[in-house]
Amino acid sequence: MRYLAAIVLVCGWSALSAQTPGLVNTLMPEPAHVTAARGTLPLTNAFSVQVARFDSPRLEGAIRRALRRLSMQAGLTLAPAPAATPATLTITVAGAGEAVQSIGEDESYDLEVTPQGATLTSRTVVGAMRGLTTLTQLIQTGGDGYFLPAVHIEDAPRFRWRGLMIDSGRHFEPVAVILRTLDGMAAVKLNVFHWHLTEDQGFRIESKVFPKLTGMGSNGQFYTQAQAREVVAYARARGIRVVPEFDMPAHSTSWLVGYPELGSAPGPFAISPAFGVRDGTLDPTRDSTYQFIDKFIGEMAAIFPDPYMHIGGDESNGKEWRANPRIAAFMRAHHFATTAELQTYFNQRLAPILAKHGKKMVGWDEVLNPALPKNVVVESWRGVKSLAQGAALGYQGILAAPYYLDHMETAGTMYLADPIPAGTSMPPAEQKLVLGGEVCMWGELVDAGTIDSRMWPRSAAIAERFWSPASVTDVNDMYRRLTVESTRLEALGLTHRTHEAAALRQLAGSSDIGALQVFASVLAPLNLGQRQRQQHATPFTPFDRLGDAVRPDPAARRELDAAIQAFIAAPTAAGAAALKARFQQWTAAVPEVERQMDASPLLALARPRAEQLPALAQAGEQAADFIQQGTDAPAGWQQQQLDLISAAEKPQTLVRFTFLPELRKLVQAVPAH
After folding, report:
1. Active-site residues: which are they?
2. Residues 449-482 pLDDT 10s
3. Distances (CA, A) of 325 to 264, 266, 285, 333, 382
4. pLDDT per residue as tens digits for the range 342-365
5. Could you say which of 136, 329, 396, 667 is the most buried, measured as most Cβ atoms within 10 Å of its Cβ?
6. For the domain 161-488, what is the CATH superfamily, name and number?
């Protein structure tokens, strides 16, 4: 059949000239194989799509979304019209793929664009989705119109499991946040949405079998079963699996509020207002515990069709087990010397319950034990060493630790962390057990307003690590393409860019935030541990500080780093002037920032950073002069500046300076006596 999808221009243009440039690669993730060719395919009002073989409503939905992207990016409008002959884009899909998308789903595709037309070939609908995403990223302009460059792409993912986890347990995230996150995931070819749904701070999924789970354990913030099914359907339409996580036996306080008989201590229980490791655990010695879990898993299995279900399994401190005489006696009777052995017993009883309902177990590092079935998947928060240990025992694994977004690492740092690092000692057979990795958005310090700015665009860089060949490691080129992808993500409705300015206006109580934006450009949030030591956030803490407004990886940091490195290598007068202009801009912004702080108590909390900035800027100016002029700094100057930098590195006011490593390099490059 032919798909009803002619594109009509808002304003017509003449055919693109032969001088129009070809491929400028802004693709993210980088495909496995890209071959540029001569020529371009103009986007004109004759653009149409033909589905040549297999078709389905799911494929048609993907085509409609791709055409909307083409329309939006190229300034076009869609109009229902008969497809032209021949079609501009021909899509050939061998078949539907699996009824329930699995870890083995074929996501490969071939895409060819010539001046005469484009062809997209895949074995499954999901593969076609990935190819359509690449097609929309190819749109370019030659000045007088938009076109697709001639190119041949053969592409397939490096890893089968490319996930993003949102922790809705600690801070509930509305459905709208989840849906736009799925759009972002699809745009960068992530394929697993790991939905962390239960925590000590809240039980977030409706159970009709056990209504007190949300009735008493959620503070009224939970997803109905209808909403959960909506998320699953929305994700499937985009080639994304949904793997729910129900934490057990620990991180389970919210289970116990309504059903205290499940607990290892007498209770009563209340939702925890504090984050961290709590003592509350399910009682692994009672048959009634497993009967309850059986009914609950059966109910959830009908909502979440994915073959995998995450049971958490982390951070069970065993205190309540050791303190309960009956559980302690059970351990002695079963010759369990440690509570870790008791947890393994719990998982041994849990695994067949999951299997009964068609599920395989996924758990954090703590579930790893050779006594468990080999189809258990271990998600490693302890790092690649733990991942390798699991593979050595024959278990499939997922790497999570380097990709914790709340650690506030830069995109470049996380980009270079690989599930299978270069030079690994893992044998090839064990490397095959590494399924991939997951970006983790833990919920302690995010809400619906801030979450996008913490996830994006950094998650796109990590998505490339999971999809692209291991040899794709050029950080500078990644950032070049990430800048473009960030704009594309914003066009999907993600708020990672717009959040900062809106939050700064709120803090200043003014729309005049030019100076404040300069100040914010040299700041980044503290990581989870640093912030918790200063603020002790709870599920009810408002995220309205400067540390919630600024971005984890601002572009100004990279720009300054590049400028300083270039200047140190070639200390020209122009380079010194450019650096000094940047430092002077910082200093000039401070008086206005301090004036706004006088009128805003929340903004004023960051005053110590405003007070530190001029001296740091002056150190940079002086260093640039010394280096450019080739003169020695006065005795003691260099050490004074290094001490100043060290003092500024200390965490405070929920924000940190991003430029201090670069400034240190500059100061250390100054000639000294």
Report:
1. 315
2. 999 999 999 999 999 999 999 999 999 999 999 9
3. 10, 12, 12, 12, 32
4. 999 999 999 999 999 999 999 999
5. 667
6. Glycosidases (3.20.20.80)
